[in-house]
Every structure is written in C-alpha cells, then in structure tokens.
Amino acid sequence: MPTHDWKKSSWHSFVAQQQPNWPTGPVFDDTLKTLSQLPPLVFAGECQTLKASLAEAVEGKAFVLQCGDCAEDFSRCTGPDIRELLKVILQMSVVLAFAGEKKVIKIGRIAGQYAKPRSSDTELVNGLELPSYRGDMVNSPEPTLEARTPDPRRMLEGYYRSAATLNLVRSFTLGGYAALERVQAWHRASLDALPAGQKYEDLVRQIWKTINFMSAIGLDPQHVPQLNQVTLYTSHEALLLDYEQALTRMDSISGGWYDTSGHMLWIGDRTRQLDGAHVEFLRGIQNPLGMKIGPKYDIDDIKRIIERLSPDNEPGRLTLITRFGVAKIEECLPPLVRELTREGYKVVWSCDPMHGNTYQNQFGQKTRNFEVVLQEIRSFYQIHRAEGTVPGGVHLELTGDNVTECTGGSRQLMDQHLHQNYQTNCDPRLNAEQGVELAFELADLLHP
Ligand code: PEP
Ligand code: MN
C-alpha cells in the first residue's frame, strides 16, 4: 500500500474496532474541530530523536523502560501523582543505568493514556446492562447509565490534562528535579526495611563517589547537561482514532505527518487487524510505533502488518511488545523471533510481562504476581540469548503510589492484603517499591 494513498482520515474506510458509540451531532463535531486547532502536544523533532534512540535499542546499545498506569485517571492528574510516578521511573532508570551499565530510554505510559480496549461492549452491574468503562477520555467508571454514556467533550478534557501533565513532566525533567545529584532525594523511606532499599542506598553512595571524582578531576557536574536533565518521552495506545486524527499534523520541516498526541504510539493486541482502521491510520504517521503481540498471533499476519507499518524497515520505527504470559512465552516467543529475524526485520523486542499474567483472586480482584512477572522477563532474556537476538526493553504497568494491586515482592503481599490500598479502575499495577525491586533484578539480567 503506497503511502501516497494515505490521508489522516483514510482509516474511515476501514473497520475500526473498540471505538466508543459516540453520539453524533454538533458536540462531537465541534470537539474534533477544536482539537484539530489546538497546539500539538509534542514536536516532530522529538519523535525523530526518540526513533534514533530506539534504533540503538535494536542493536542492544540502549534499553527501553516504558512504564506507567494501565489507564490514567483524570482525578489523578495532580502534581504529587505525576511527581511520584516520575520519581519511580527515575529511580528505576538510575538502577538500570548504573548497575546495568546501559543507556536507558525512558518512555511513560503518560500524558494521554486515557482510553482502554475492553473485552465486551457492555457489562452487567447489579442486574443492569451498562456500556463498559472505556477510560476517562470516553466515559466514567461509576455504574450508572449516565456515567457510562460516552461523552465527546471528554476528549477535550483528556487533551488539556495531557498538556498539564506534560508541562509538569518537562519542568521536572529539565528544571533540576531530575538532576543526578538528587538521586538521594528520590529515595523512599518505605524502602528502608527492604533489600531493595539497602541496595539503593549503596548505589547512591557509589553515584556520589563518581560525582565527587568528576569534581576532583576538574569536571564541574553543574555543567554536564546529562547529569542535570533527563528526557521522559510520552506514549499511549492509539485507540480513539478520531482523537488521534485531530492531533495529526504535517511537520513543516520534514513534510511528514506526525500524530502530535504523544511521542510514541502503540497498537493494541485487540486492534491490530491487517485490514483494520488502526493499522491504516498508524502506517501513515512518522512517530515511532509499538505493536502488542499476544499468544493468539498468526505469524504470516504479523509479517504483513510489519510490512505495512514499517515498509522501509527503518530501525527504531517499530517496537514489538510481546505479552504472552509465563505459561506461554516458551511456546510463543521462539518461533516469532526466529521467523522475523530470518526475514531481516529490524525491530526493538520489548517484553510486557503484565498482560499475559493477570488473574482474578478469590476476592474478585484482578491481580498479578511480582515473581511471575519477573519470571516472564527472565524467560524473555533466556530466549533472546538462545536465539542470538537482542532483548531491548520492558513495558510495565506501575504507579508511584503505595498501592496494593499486585501480589509478591519482598513485602510478600498476598491476595488477602490487596484490599488495603487497591485503587485501579483497570489493570493492577506494580507499586513504587515493587518497581525499584524489579529494576535491580533487571539490572542483573542486563549484563549476565
Ligand atoms: C494495555 O497495554 O493496557 C493493553 C490493553 O494491552 P494489550 O493490547 O496487550 O492487551
Ligand atoms: Mn492494561
């Protein structure tokens, strides 16, 4: 399919899965018109820089840490919530960079992750059949018909909250908060009693020794930008195609089309049909793309989708995010890696150890177990090493809050503890402590 046939609206001629039943009329039309006139959230040049960094991850010269909420929540678009998430990402990346000795590409599921695919259009709540909750950009989770009716104005609200989030992320990452000298300040007192807390303290001491050594030989850390600023890229699932189209603009420098709602967009396991609207939309934008692959994949189908999304096989363009679950990864990953490598596709291989390992506990809560999550990552590494390919990164659902949504970890959370602080409206997330613990385990895997 030649790119010149593509328009930002050409997806309308294809079947779009997982779209809300938006009410038609002036509210819907006016919302999209307003969105299409508002400023872009990200700049095309940033997307190109991210693509170039991802090309390094294809070769194993950098590691992709993509993480954040399953679904962002409008009510949690607050300074402290954003700061706590950023803090855990900074802690994890410093562990990976220092202990794992690898450049870390930090990508948040942030500033736009407001829409969710669902397994069913409706759900039965207290005998009432209601539209499913599809994320704050579509409807509200309360179990009433009014709350669950899709409201297009929520897309505008999502845009503004994404802009506010991104604004604070940029201030924190460029304005001194993320300076390596503050590595001690990112520490959490709650980690103190845990092995990861001790390891983090040791790491902080080593980092200080390094900074002091730099000063001693006359390199002023204040004047080394890499020590004072970090880049956190944004990403979300490109699910609501009307929203994504409204934010798609032509870059005046390169002449390419960019979806300016986020730096990286991914296509979900439920919406990646070869002849579907999502593949059609994403093939025409120049942002780096992700594609989720679950256990039911068809290998020929995957090859055709890759050829459509990445016809030039440009390294960094495509990240394949596999999410098989610990029980299926041994069966599903090796043939995929072997075949795509044989075809010569240059992709980043990333492991999502969350979505294939979700279960419902005896109290009806959706959860995941820390050790199982870690086990899928370990298998991912073993398989890639055995195949001679590059394990390029991880894709995690986590939060900076002290939630109790996933079991396990060194606090040994069990199913019966999860009620203490179970907050998610969607999938269960690792908490900040579990995130830092996971980073230490990952650092060991990075240099075996
Ligand atoms: C997700 O990342 O939240 C998600 C829904 O994933 P998948 O498309 O892999 O099911
Ligand atoms: Mn999820």
Automatic annotation (TrEMBL):
EC number: 2.5.1.54
Chain positions recorded as phosphoenolpyruvate binding sites: 109, 292, 323
Catalytic activity: D-erythrose 4-phosphate + phosphoenolpyruvate + H2O = 7-phospho-2-dehydro-3-deoxy-D-arabino-heptonate + phosphate
Amino-acid biosynthesis is among the record's keywords: yes
Signal peptide: none
Cofactor: record remark: Binds 1 divalent cation per subunit. The enzyme is active with manganese, cobalt or cadmium ions.
A Pfam family: DAHP_synth_2
Keywords, comma-separated and alphabetical: Amino-acid biosynthesis, Aromatic amino acid biosynthesis, Cadmium, Cobalt, Manganese, Transferase
Pathway: Metabolic intermediate biosynthesis; chorismate biosynthesis; chorismate from D-erythrose 4-phosphate and phosphoenolpyruvate: step 1/7
Cofactor(s) essential for the protein: Mn(2+); Co(2+); Cd(2+)
SUPFAM superfamilies (UniProt xref): Aldolase (SSF51569)
Binding site for Mn(2+): 70, 355, 397, 427
UniProt GO molecular function: 3-deoxy-7-phosphoheptulonate synthase activity
PANTHER family on file: PHOSPHO-2-DEHYDRO-3-DEOXYHEPTONATE ALDOLASE, PHOSPHO-2-DEHYDRO-3-DEOXYHEPTONATE ALDOLASE 1, 2
NCBIfam families tied to this protein: DAHP_synth_II
Protein family: Belongs to the class-II DAHP synthase family.
Protein name per its UniProtKB record: Phospho-2-dehydro-3-deoxyheptonate aldolase
Species this chain originates from: Geomonas silvestris
